[in-house]
Design brief:
single chain, 211 residues, globular, mainly alpha
């Protein structure tokens, strides 16, 4: 990365492929950042030793792939809230197209080496169920989105439960703050009307295919 790339304005999000990439990248960032930072904080002076252990690397891989669908659900709900605020009354078809996009992001990845295929299939089923639940209620405040996921995520961190201490509130707050930042970036970068138009086109194409 060039030195001044950090000051470069990020490209706008005008199509569903760019939205899918945004959801993928930010879901991975959301779950992985805390895995590494929390593990480093809990290990303290022994963090270098811990991070050099092959068994710890296996635990991290297991944790990040188990957590990734939770990240997709949370970032997908952020995207739903941003888009829904710009949508017409016929949001249901556009919403179904958005759910399909989030699931297509999950499907980019083969079964991870750290997981078995039955578990990977179950994680996809759970993700689809969680995404469908989003459409059953009005958009949440961004800080409320992590509520049903935070404990699940905390329990997946690769640190033994006896060593975690009373750190759940800190992890929960991390998810809130990071999702707010993701929401702000998506709001700045996304051409919501253009993306909604493509979602509607995709929904119409899928409906025509069924008919």
């Amino acid at each position: 990365m060039a030195l001044f790339d950090i000051f470069r304005r990020r490209d706008p999000i005008r199509d569903t492929g760019e939205l899918a990439d945004f959801i993928d990248q930010n879901s991975a960032f959301l779950v992985q950042k805390a895995i590494y930072e929390y593990s480093r904080a809990r290990a303290g002076h022994y963090s270098k030793v811990l991070f050099a252990e092959p068994e710890f690397h296996k635990a991290v891989e297991h944790s990040r792939w188990r957590s990734y669908p939770l990240g997709l659900a949370m970032v997908g709900e952020v995207a739903e809230g941003v888009l829904r605020s710009h949508s017409s009354d016929d949001w249901r078809r556009e919403f179904d197209a958005l759910v399909a996009i989030v699931l297509s992001v999950f499907d980019r990845y083969p079964v991870p080496d750290s997981l078995r295929e039955p578990l990977w299939r179950k994680l996809r089923i759970d993700l689809e169920r969680r995404l469908q639940l989003i459409g059953l209620h009005p958009p949440k405040r961004v800080i409320d989105i992590p509520e049903p996921f935070a404990k699940l995520y905390f329990d997946l961190l690769p640190i033994h439960e006896k060593l975690r201490g009373p750190d759940y509130p800190t992890t929960h707050n991390y998810l809130k703050v990071t999702l707010c930042n993701i929401h702000d970036e998506l709001t700045r970068r996304m051409d919501a009307n253009a993306v909604l138009s493509l979602l509607a086109t995709r929904a119409n194409s899928e409906q025509a295919g069924v008919e």
